[in-house]
Design brief:
The structure holds two protein chains of two kinds. Chain A has five helices and no strands. Chain A is mainly alpha-helical. By secondary structure, chain B is mostly helical. Classes of the chains: A mainly alpha, B mainly alpha. At the A-B interface, helix 2, helix 3, helix 4 and helix 5 of A face helix 2, helix 3, helix 4 and helix 5 of B.
């Protein structure tokens, strides 16, 4: 795989840019992107936990960042990425059992992941704002 | 047709068979309830003051859930990052370096989070 000597002058199989984008293909890419996004989010979680352990001053710094527009945007993307990857992951676990691999099911799974993750993310934020009381 | 089972079992190019595949599934299953816990824990504490959030995490069952999430997610993340690197980084040296960095990243954020939870639980 990583051997460049073998790769020379061999025909290559068609890659992504050859194919017309399909929903299931985009969802596969999205699963990978959200997985990477969750790694960035893990860094935010670690920062938050370390700040709580470090004391009130450090926690105030993290809190003010997360309360800023940029912080909230980052957290919104992280929460969406997390929920999207979770629903996409459940889809993968179902596939691992050999179920839901027919053409109709994969389309249903794709739409469920898109609509479900978006709706759940918005719901989480609406509940969060309601509990906070506005601001 | 006889299945060459002895050549399949526990082998493959990585000499570890389906162990990584299976570990990714085990951590994925564990992550589902743990991520739901994380989201609920954070959403229910939005705007809470420092003492409240620290006291919340210091509760043994809450700390346990956080530790489980951190360890499971760190293992899952390390496998996922490695898979992405193996697909896109073809130069052998750069690939090994990138996988090494991904491993250090997963261990770093994981351990920092674990130490934070332990300090919140037991420390002053």
């Amino acid at each position: 795989m990583g051997n460049s000597k073998l790769a020379a002058d061999r025909p290559l199989s068609p890659h992504l840019q050859i194919y017309r984008p399909m929903l299931t293909m985009l969802m596969s890419i999205a699963h990978r992107i959200t997985g990477f996004g969750n790694a960035v989010g893990f860094l935010l979680l670690a920062w938050w936990l370390v700040a709580i352990a470090a004391g009130p001053e450090q926690y105030a710094v993290v809190s003010s960042f997360f309360a800023s527009i940029a912080g909230r945007a980052l957290l919104f993307l992280f929460s969406w990425s997390l929920i999207h990857h979770m629903l996409g992951g459940i889809r993968h676990l179902i596939w691992d059992t050999g179920h839901g691999l027919d053409k109709v099911s994969i389309e249903i799974f794709a739409w469920t992941t898109i609509i479900g993750s978006t709706a759940l993310t918005i719901l989480v934020w609406l509940v969060g704002y309601a509990l906070r009381g506005g601001s | 047709m006889a299945t060459p089972l002895k050549r399949v079992r526990g082998l493959g190019s990585a000499r570890s068979g389906t162990e990584t595949f299976w570990r990714q599934r085990v951590t994925a299953v564990a992550n589902v309830p743990l991520v739901i816990f994380l989201i609920l824990a954070i959403v229910s504490h939005i705007g809470a003051d420092y003492g409240t959030i620290r006291g919340f995490i210091a509760q043994p069952l809450v700390a346990l859930a956080f530790l489980a999430l951190i360890i499971s997610a760190a293992i899952h993340m390390r496998i996922g990052l490695k898979e992405i690197i193996e697909d896109y980084v073809h130069d052998e040296g750069a690939k090994v370096l990138a996988i090494l960095l991904a491993t250090f990243f997963a261990a770093g954020v994981g351990l920092a989070s674990v130490v934070a939870i332990l300090k919140i639980s037991f420390g002053s």
